[in-house]
Amino acid sequence: MRRSLAHGATATLVVAMLGACKPAEEQPAPPIRPVLYTIVKPTEAVPFGPFAGTVEPRYQSQLGFQIGGRVVARDVTVGDVVRKGQRLAALDPVVPRFALTRAEADVADARAQAENATATEARMRRLMEGNNVSQAQLDTSVANRDTAQARLAQATASLQKAQDQIRYTTLLADFDGVVTQRLAEVGQVLTAGQGVMTVARPEIREAVVDIPEDLVGAMPRDRVFTVSLQSAPEITARGRVREVAPFADRSTRTRRIRMTLEAPPPVFRLGTTITVSLEQRTERRFLLPATALLEADGRTSVWIVPAGKNTVERRDVVLAERKPGRVAIREGLSEGDRVVVAGAHSLQDGQAVRVADGRI
Fold first, then answer.
1. How far apart are CA 319 and CA 340, in angstroms?
2. pTM of this prediction exceeds 0.70
3. What does the alpha-carbon distance between residue 303 and residue 345 come to, in Å, rounded to a whole number?
């Protein structure tokens, strides 16, 4: 019995000693992670923009009637091309026509009174020569003649005003243009000067964009911008800054920029949506999303997937510029490098990765 216990203890001791002699198990390798990468290319131009805007006229006028009344006709609508002198709208002419009839009657009455006063004054002069009337009677006839002539002049002016009122019931185009806004409808009662429609001159067109206030200071005002159609980006024109709004919009905190279009193609019609941008020359750099940057252990670096390998290596870089959502690398990268752009803080040096086909 004692011999069996001794043999068991010896076996246990041998097993314990053999277990102590086994090497420690290695740590498990990091998991293979799929990564999203981009192939970097150097650039020597920094884009300013793009900013969305529209094509607008430099000159446009809001037209309205010089008198009040009820609209009885509107001959054009938004988008119509109008010519100088063309009728755009009309007011009810009944009331102004009554005023014209009364003014004509007043002129006829004043003219008759003036002729009678003139004839009376002439008779008084002849009688005065024969000493048949007094000087006071002659002065009275002269005064009556002058008063009658003044009344005739007043009635004539009233007649001219009534005739003008009749003409004011018709709204005519002052120049060749395009209707861009309609402000009144048939049957609406308008006051004098109230807007009826807006007519724009299409010969001088401008690009109008709203730029964030914090970017206006960095905008070069003496450079030529590229203006392209959003519907057809290959169609472009040149634009130069003509006017910068002195104050920012209270709600959007943007400032309106107006650019003169230099010989724009005909497709740059009024109201067309456009994109305005500018490329500025700068030092050679590589543009990357801010998510590609790893700042740890006092180092600024990115993860590189070497060509022909499925592992990542950390490479230190030198920043040229940092903006919200984007960084510019001045040193540390070469053209064609594959840079990981997502998950930079969850990788380890030498970790195996699976390169996704959908690179950006």
1. 17
2. no
3. 10
